[in-house]
Design goal:
- The chain is built from eight helices and seven strands.
- By secondary structure, it is α+β, with helices and mostly antiparallel strands.
- A hairpin with a 7-residue loop joins strand 4 and strand 5.
């Protein structure tokens, strides 16, 4: 989560170099209960080279309705966008995006996600004590550093798919210098999460035991 002072420093750099900026704020509703989202547009109310992207798809799982909000301040660029963008919107997607009765559900969801993040940390601490993990400030995606258990070149998604029956993503799919990290989707029932974590931890600990005993001479 970007704090107000951080956004102000960022805005200074943007203005200094007259940069175009696309602010992807699609996860802005899915934040921990003690966090607050501040749109970059609020910090830069008059900056024309700012484009803001938002959508109901992440928050309410509506990706299939294919609708999003692209806020383009620059009139010329907005005309170019409208001339090239193929519009998939339909009455159902528009009605869903405009719905105003999801706030109670969203607050309950955020509380549930907070509990899942806490549970994940406690479970890893108990069953994979060398794993490094901290609760993220936003999204429903948790990152865990398992470098203490794996070699840098190991393909973690394949390992967990075959050894644990769990489909997850490796950190290096998204950013550099993230070998040994896994990304977990915590937007699921706690029972499902518990089963997934159990399989993950058992697979890692079994691998560790096999390596330990394999290195011992008889």
């Amino acid at each position: 989560m970007w704090k107000e002072e951080e956004l102000k420093k960022l805005a200074e750099i943007i203005k200094k170099y007259n940069l175009w900026v696309i602010s992807d704020e699609i996860h802005c509703d899915l934040i921990r209960l003690n966090q607050k989202h501040i749109p970059l547009g609020k910090i830069m109310p008059d900056y024309e080279r700012l484009i803001t992207a938002m959508a109901p798809s992440k928050t309410f799982n509506l990706a299939g309705l294919m609708i999003s909000n692209i806020i383009i301040r620059n009139e010329n660029l907005r005309e170019v966008w409208l001339s090239r963008h193929y519009n998939f919107d339909n009455p159902l997607s528009i009605a869903a995006a405009q719905a105003e009765k999801g706030n109670v559900w969203l607050e309950e969801l955020r509380a549930y996600l907070d509990e899942n993040f806490q549970f994940t940390g406690e479970y890893l601490s108990k069953h994979l004590p060398k794993a490094r993990y901290r609760i993220s400030e936003a999204t429903y995606l948790a990152w865990a550093d398992l470098n203490e258990y794996f070699e840098p070149d190991e393909q973690l998604p394949l390992f967990f798919a075959y050894r644990a029956g769990v489909l997850l993503e490796g950190g290096n799919m998204f950013i550099q210098n993230s070998d040994g990290f896994i990304r977990l989707n915590l937007a699921c029932p706690k029972a499902t999460l518990a089963e997934g974590l159990k399989r993950i931890c058992e697979a890692v600990n079994t691998k560790h035991m096999e390596k330990t005993w394999g290195n011992k001479s008889i």
